[in-house]
Write a structure and sequence with these properties.
The protein is mainly alpha-helical. Helix content is 45%, strand content 8%. It is built from 10 helices and 6 strands. It has a two-stranded antiparallel ribbon. A two-stranded antiparallel ribbon has the order 3-6. It has a two-stranded antiparallel ribbon with strand order 4-5. A hairpin with a 2-residue loop joins strand 4 and strand 5. The radius of gyration is 30 Å and the shape is globular.
């Protein structure tokens, strides 16, 4: 009779015991293989998800075209889907989502539709715009949120650099407070569905609610979908008394409260571009009946 337990090196497994070890090893090995496979499958699924990038400052028309392309739909499909998208927009928008198609990167998952993507963009914008800082900033400037988004859209289109955004916002607010027309070329360009660096005198005569040379106050809707920095510029504009600005050349935007100084800046712009007929972005022809702003 054996009274001592054999040392570990002398313990022998029965055939049944060996089989149990083999099975257990197979289970462990199988699990080790399954986890990487699951991870690879997840990575593959993520790789298959297309991403839709909406840059800051895009107009709604550009967003519609991008959605059509992402979903491989005929041009105009997304625009036609607006009526059934049930977008949660402010009453002032009149069903127009301009300004509320929040610039961001959106996943285009299987089964996505124009309506679902538009709703996601608007919901993202509403979450941002309903946040306390936006609401408080709007009240501080005696505006509602929709007006704030509208001004931000003009700032987005007019500012030559992100550093200039706060100053452009201040010019707009100063002009509104004084009852002056904004005279921003970006609103004319929106009405004409174009992007140019200058506005001719004929352009300032167009009959459009977006003609900020002829009409006092804000345009009826935003003119693009502004980004975060443009919104911040409106909520916290740079202090100043400026009423005019002109981008003489890239990186050289000049702000002033003096009309004569502004005319000299406009003349320098015209000389640099060798075209007195084309006015600088954001400003109309100097002299009556116009009062160039930028």
């Amino acid at each position: 009779m054996q009274t001592k337990t054999p040392s570990r090196s002398r313990i022998r497994l029965t055939r049944r015991g060996r089989l149990a070890v083999v099975v257990a090893g197979a289970v462990v090995a199988g699990t080790a293989v399954a986890v990487p496979l699951l991870m690879l499958a997840a990575d593959h699924e993520q790789a298959k998800t297309a991403m839709l990038v909406i840059p800051e400052g895009w107009r709604a028309s550009q967003v519609y075209a991008a959605i059509d392309k992402a979903l491989e739909l005929p041009p105009g499909s997304t625009r036609k889907s607006l009526g059934k998208a049930a977008l949660q927009l402010p009453s002032q928008a009149g069903g127009n989502p301009e300004g509320y198609l929040r610039p961001a990167t959106y996943p285009v998952r299987q089964g996505a539709t124009p309506e679902s993507l538009l709703r996601t963009m608007v919901e993202t914008a509403n979450r941002r715009y309903s946040a306390a800082p936006v609401a408080a900033g709007a009240q501080r400037e005696a505006m509602n949120v929709y007006q704030t988004v509208t001004i931000a859209s003009i700032v987005q289109a007019e500012a030559d650099t992100k550093v200039d955004m706060g100053k452009v916002a201040r010019v707009i607010l100063n002009r509104l407070q004084r009852g002056m027309p904004l005279q921003m070329d970006a609103t004319i360009n929106y009405a004409l569905n174009r992007n140019t660096v200058g506005t001719g005198q004929d352009d300032t005569q167009i009959a459009s609610p977006y003609n900020s040379y002829q009409r006092v106050g804000l345009p009826p809707t935003p003119i693009d979908n502004p980004g975060e920095q443009a919104m911040r510029a409106v909520l916290n504009p740079t202090p100043g008394d400026w009423l005019y600005f002109v981008t003489v050349k890239p990186g050289d935007t000049r702000f002033t409260a003096d009309y004569d100084e502004h005319l000299r800046n406009v003349a320098e712009f015209s000389a640099a571009h060798q075209s007195a007929a084309t006015q600088p972005s954001g400003g109309g022809p100097p002299g009556p009946p116009y009062n160039p702003s930028s």
